[in-house]
Amino acid sequence: MVMPLLNRTAKLRMRQCHTLSLLVVLTLAVGCATTGSENLVGARGPLPPGVDEEELAGGAVAEATLALSRVWSVAGPVNQMGSRLTFSFWAERGALTLLDFTASGREGPAGHPIDEEAFQQELAHVLTRFAQRHTGQVHLTLERQQASWTLGYSTSANPRPPEAKTLPVRRAGLPASEVLPLAQAVRQIMHTVQVPAGAQARLAMEISLEDGRTEGGRLRLFEVTRPGSNGPLRPIAPAVLEESIAVLLPFTQALGERTVSLELRLAVQPGSRSTHGWVEQALVERPPAPAELNATFVTEYRALHEDILRRWREESREGGAWVARKGAEELAVWYVGGILTRGLGWLGSKLAPTVLRALQRGGEAATGWLRTTLIRLPQEKRLAFERLWAKVQLEGKKSLNGQEHVELRSLMEELERLIHTPLDRNTKARLRERAREAYASLHPEFADLLRTRQMLLPIHHRRPLEYAHLFPEDNINAAENLIMVTREAHERVNSLWTWFRQTRPSPTAQEVETVARMIDRQFAPWYHQPAPPSRVSYTLQEAADTALAQLQRLFPN
Amino acid sequence: MSPPLELPGLERLMNICRHSGLELETTLPSRSPPLAGALMEGLPLDPMLAAFYARFGHAAFASDITGIVMEPLSETSQQLEEQNAWWSRGYRQQLALPTFIFAGEPHLAYHYATVPTLADAQGLQPVVRVDVHEEPYAVPVASSVDRFFEIYSRYLEALLALPRARQEKGALLAFPWEIPHLFGHDPPLVEALRAGRFDALMPGAEERSWARKVLAAAAAPG
Description:
The complex is a heterodimer of chains A (557) and B (222). Chain A has 18 helices and 13 strands. Chain A has 557 residues and is α+β, with helices and mostly antiparallel strands. The longest helix of chain A is centred in the first third of the chain and has 23 residues, at 53-75. Chain A is elongated, with a radius of gyration of 31 Å. Chain B is globular. The interface between A and B is large, with 41 and 38 residues.
C-alpha cells in the first residue's frame, strides 16, 4: 500500500547551502522525533548491548545529514522541468538505507534556478519528521517544476531486505576508502563505452559491494537503440560519470554482499563532442542466503555483524579494539558466520573440511565448537586467527597481504590437524577450566551448590577428553557432555574408563560412544546430583560392578 | 612450644588476590587445630599446613577466575580428614608414593597434596599436583606448602598480565604446564627434580617433558 503523507510545492530561490544551519534543523527535528508522542514506528529487534537512545539520536542526525547530502548531490544538477526522481529507503531507528532509485522525464526543457537552501530544509524536515519515525520502506519523490522541486513522501509495507541497516551510523560523510574504489570502478567501465554521433543508447552496469566496499564492477549491457550518422564515436561526458557515482554512493551504506545494477540512457546530440545522458534506474540485487545455514543463525549473525560494522564505521580504531577485546569467545557467532559466508570459496573447503562441516551446523553447535576448538591454539595464534578473520570481515579478503593470507591458511590447516589429534595434558587442563565455567552457566539452579561445595562436585566429561579427537565435529564441552557428579561417583566412572583404556588402547569412536552409553545407563541416577540419590535400588559400587561386567562381556580380553 | 611458622608465600598470594580484586575467602580456624606431625590417615601433617590451619579453617584463592580451594578443617567441617580418608581408600594407593591432599581446583579432579616421604631435613613436605581425571599421576609444583602459595601467586600474576584474562580466566594459561619458567623461584624444587626424587610419581612422557622444561628454564641465565 502506498500512502502519500506529504506533497508540498516549495517556491524557492537559489542560495548557497549553509551546512551549519541545516544541521541545527536536523538535530532539533530528530530531538522531537525521539521524544514526540506520535507513534509511527513498526516492529524492531532488540537493541544490542551497550547501545543507548542518546547514541541512536546522534546516529539518526548523521544518517539524515548524509541522506540529505546524497539526495541533493543527485538532484542538485537536474534542472529539466518534468524530471521525476524517486529514492526508496529502508528506515529503521533513524538508519536510512537506499534500496533503489529511479528517474524519468529527464528530457524536458530547462527550468529556472531554485532556492537550494530552502529546499534542503524542506527535505531535511521530511527526512527527520517522517522517515526517521517510521520502520519500513519510505519513498521520496522529487518532481522538478519551473523554479522549484515538488517533494512527495510515501511508505510501503515490504519486508526488510537483508542489506538494510537497523541501527544508525554516527559519522560525518563518506570515507575516501569507500568513495574512491567505487568511483574508480565506474570510471573504468564508462571509459570503455563510446556512442556514435547522433545515436541513442542504453547502458547497464553492475557494481559488486560487500558492506561498504566495492569489490568489482562490469559492463552488463551496451545497446545502441537508435543509429547515428556513422560519424565519430563520442566518449561519455564527465557529468554522466559524476551522476552515476552520485547515484551509486549511498548504496555503499548498507550491509553484506550484494550487487547494484545501474541503467543509463545515453545520446549524442548533433554537434556535441561527448555523450550525454542520465541514470534511469539503480537497484539492489541480492544473493540467495547460504542454504547450509539456518535462518535464525543467519539473522543473528547479520545483527551482530551490523553492530560490529557500525562501531567500525563510526570509529575504526576503537571499533577494531572493541572486537579485539571481545574475541571469539564473546563474538563466536560473528566468526562462525564470517568464515562460512566469506571464507568457504577461497579458503576453507579444501584446507579444513572438518572445520567447515562443524561450523555449517550453525547455532550453538557451531559457536560452542569454535570456542572449544580455539582453546587448542596457543594464545598468540588464537589472537592472530581472530585478528585476521576480523580483518576479512571488516575490510575484505583483498585487504590481507600475502603474508597474512599465508598465515590464515596455515591457521586453518592447524585447526584441522588439531581436531584430529589426541589432546595433551596442557590442553585438557584448559578445556576443563572452560567446562567448569560452561557448566555453571548452563545450570544456574546449582549456583549456590557449586559455590559452597567446590571440591566435592567435579564436572565430568561424559565422553572423556582423551577421545575428543575421535569426534572432531563435536564440541567436547557441549552441554550434553558435561555432568556434575560427586567425587565418589566420579572415581567409580573413571575406574571404568581406566579399564576400557587399558583393554582398548586405540578404540573407535563407536566403541567410545557404546561405553559412554553403558555408563550412562548405570550411573544416570547420580548425574547432576549433589548427594547420593535416595530412590535407587542399587548402590554406587553395584552400579560400577554391573557396568564393569557389561564392559567385560563386550570387550573380552 | 615453638612459634608458628611464618608463611610469606601465603601472604603474597593473599595480597595478589586483594590487589587484583580476585576472590579471597577465608574462615576462622578450629579452636584446636592439629599440630605439625599429627597423624591423619597414617601420614604426618606437614608443619606449614599445620601453620595454615592454625590461622584459617578454610580458604579459597582466586576461585572466580581459576583458583585453588583448601580442604576445610574447622569447628564446622572436618573435610580435610574426611577427604583424606576417601583418598587413602582409592587414589592414594594408585600412586607410587603416599600423598596427603589438602587443596584442589574447584569442580575439577586436580588435587594438591604433600608427599611426607620426601620431606626435607626440617620436615617440610613438597607439594605435588595430582590429576585423577584419568590414571592418577602427579607433577611436583613446590618444595613446600608455602612455596606452593608463592608459585601460585606468580602464576596468577602471569595470567592477569595476558589480554582478556578476566574473560577467559584459567583457560588462558594452564597451571603448571604453561609456566615452567616460574618454578626457578623454588631452588629446592629444581634440585629435587634434578635429583629425580619425583620420578616415581610421574611415569608419563608429558610430565617428564614438563620437568625438563622447568630444569632448562632454571638453568637459563637471567
